[in-house]
Hints:
Blueprint: H1 3-6, H2 14-20, E1 32-34, E2 53-55, E3 74-77, E4 82-84, E5 90-92, H3 93-101, E6 110-116, H4 117-121, H5 125-133, E7 137-144, E8 153-159
Parallel strand pairs: 1-2, 1-3, 3-6
Antiparallel strand pairs: 4-5, 6-8, 7-8
Amino acid sequence: MSADDKYLFHQTPREIAKQLIDYVPVEKGDVLCEPFRGEGAFWDVLPDTGGEHVWAEIRAGRDWTGIDYEQVDTVVSNPPFKIRRHNGTEVTAFWTAIDRFTDYDGAKKHICLLGNDFSLCTLTPRRLRVLADRNWYVQRLVACDVEKWRGTHFFIILGRTDTGLYTPLPKNETV
């Protein structure tokens, strides 16, 4: 199976990456990761923190699932729209990636992902509660226009502090 069959590609415009990188919260020594490098729009503008920069790109033979995210402070990427699982089913890459990055052995500080309005809608109340149980919260949404893409796009920044920006109602068993 070719990489194009496994992943649906939408390359990040370099100008958008240059603008969005300023929103990425980093500290000296942070290890940064670009797990869906594509043509390198985010990779090429990652700030020099003095820490390691880690990347993956399926077309270069480096699958994002092979990264040790426990060693990563911040993830910055534009995930593909869908990922094909080993059994052939396609799933939304946005939530699949967030679920992996926030898991018990995931990133330490921040996850910064570019996604469209559909991607934002994958953060359902149930999934927001899953994230909160893992001590991860949506901290910032940056709306951006990508003229060549359909719909509205957001740079979604998740972190370890609850800012109250995007909060689910408590689960109510009677509704």
